[in-house]
């Protein structure tokens, strides 16, 4: 029951000083698109499910875990409200990005190339690539940490393995976007299951969690700086390019009703995926806050809480809650790091193709975008070890924040 293409309205691009009145924006002839039936039914919602989970993984990547752990360790539940505000803003921004792709048939990077002169367009591309690398570095290092926790693999070798495994998993693209979406959704639910189990181990006080969630406060000398890092980890500029492109994997009816339905269902789907990501971030902060503010900590564990990173968190959880808690954390970190590196590389492909109109072989594009994040991560891991890699995550989160404000 697919709608006919005859008589469909064409959306015309506004190109600044240049006007191409005969250039349609809707020009998707991708045979791999998922066809949405031209019918008015709530069952169409299932055809739209998928892109939101690929987008949501950026909000629960290792960079988020790092800042979440420190926020809980130093200020208990006092910074939870920042996660709530950032998650609400994320839903609005991601919905707008999805609507752009649905209505126009082109993703954000393609619009930038069309609307801006060559010079500003090149600057925007450079800034977008820097933002992607800043987002990707914590993901690569976090995956390497997880491999070290589970299998005692050195961090620098874990960085190399992360790049290789990402390229292998991205090969799923040739079997259709649905396979990749199912994989990412499975990994997101794995992360959620692990941290909800951690919550059961840690048993944070519900009333204190709710107070931190709905009562804004910045108490302490370093609260403002950590709040900025927490916000920076929740700011994902590459997600705007990614979400506006992922929605193009669906062939929707090109009618007013069909477009409105697609925008509505994508917003609902994004809301559900971001809600899962929101609950995971709340769980990480709550577990860290409960563990580091426990009265049963010895002096060594208290020292770890003062400068808590991904690597120390595993040992802390093992000492306080038991070995199973440490393993659950490592599994969640591995799922988070691996899935976020996949989506980060995916976003890099769309940015490169959209801004520069480069038609490269997929594996070459994947290799280029992987190397941009792996090279600095590998250098820091070799020179600075686990401690240096952990500090690089915080620096990358601050860089994301500054890039967006710029």
TrEMBL record:
Alphabetical keyword list: Membrane, Transmembrane, Transmembrane helix
Database matches in InterPro entries: NRAMP_fam
Membrane topology: Multi-pass membrane protein
GO CC terms in record: plasma membrane
Highest taxon listed in the record's lineage: Eukaryota
Pfam families tied to this protein: Nramp (PF01566)
Subcellular compartments: Membrane
Example GO BP: iron ion transmembrane transport
GO terms of molecular function: cadmium ion transmembrane transporter activity; manganese ion transmembrane transporter activity
TM annotation in the entry: 42-60, 80-102, 122-147, 153-172, 184-202, 222-249, 270-291, 328-351, 372-399
Chief place where the protein resides: membrane
Family indicated by similarity: Belongs to the NRAMP (TC 2.A.55) family.
HAMAP family named among the record's database cross-references: NRAMP
Family annotation (NCBIfam families): nramp, Nramp_1
PANTHER family named in the record: METAL TRANSPORTER NRAMP1, SOLUTE CARRIER PROTEIN FAMILY 11 MEMBER
Protein name per its UniProtKB record: Metal transporter
């Amino acid at each position: 029951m697919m709608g006919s293409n005859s008589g469909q309205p064409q959306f015309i691009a506004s190109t600044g000083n240049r006007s191409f009145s005969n250039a349609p924006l809707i020009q998707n002839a991708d045979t791999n698109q998922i066809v949405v039936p031209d019918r008015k039914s709530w069952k169409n919602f299932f055809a739209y499910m998928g892109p939101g989970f690929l987008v949501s993984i950026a909000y629960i990547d290792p960079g988020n875990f790092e800042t979440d752990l420190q926020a809980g360790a130093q200020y208990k539940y006092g910074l939870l409200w920042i996660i709530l505000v950032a998650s609400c803003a994320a839903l609005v921004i991601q919905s707008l990005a999805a609507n752009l792709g649905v209505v126009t048939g082109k993703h954000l990077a393609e619009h930038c190339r069309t609307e801006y002169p060559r010079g500003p367009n090149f600057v925007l591309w450079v800034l977008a690539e820097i933002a992607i690398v800043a987002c990707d570095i914590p993901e690569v290092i976090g995956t390497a940490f997880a491999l070290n926790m589970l299998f005692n693999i050195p961090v620098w070798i874990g960085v190399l393995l992360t790049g290789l495994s990402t390229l292998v998993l991205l090969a799923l693209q040739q079997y259709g976007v649905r396979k990749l979406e199912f994989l990412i959704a499975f990994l997101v639910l794995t992360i959620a299951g692990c941290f909800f189990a951690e919550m059961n181990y840690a048993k944070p006080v519900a009333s204190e969690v709710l107070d931190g969630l709905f009562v804004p406060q910045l108490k302490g000398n370093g609260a403002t700086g950590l709040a900025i890092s927490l916000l920076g980890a929740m700011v994902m500029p590459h997600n705007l390019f990614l979400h506006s492109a992922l929605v193009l994997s669906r062939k929707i009816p090109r009618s007013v009703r069909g477009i409105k339905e697609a925008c509505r269902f994508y917003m609902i789907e994004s809301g559900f995926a971001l809600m899962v990501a929101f609950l995971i971030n709340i769980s990480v902060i709550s577990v860290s806050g409960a563990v580091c503010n426990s009265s049963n900590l010895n002096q060594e564990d208290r020292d770890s809480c003062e400068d808590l990173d991904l690597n120390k968190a595993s040992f802390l959880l093992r000492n306080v809650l038991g070995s199973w808690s440490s393993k659950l954390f490592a599994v969640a970190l591995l799922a988070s790091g691996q899935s976020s590196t996949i989506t980060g590389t995916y976003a890099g492909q769309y940015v490169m193709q959209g801004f520069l109109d480069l038609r490269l072989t997929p594996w070459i594009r994947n290799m280029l975008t992987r190397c941009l994040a792996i090279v600095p991560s590998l250098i820091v891991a070799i020179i600075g070890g686990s401690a240096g890699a952990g500090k690089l995550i915080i620096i990358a989160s601050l860089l994301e924040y500054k890039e967006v404000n710029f």
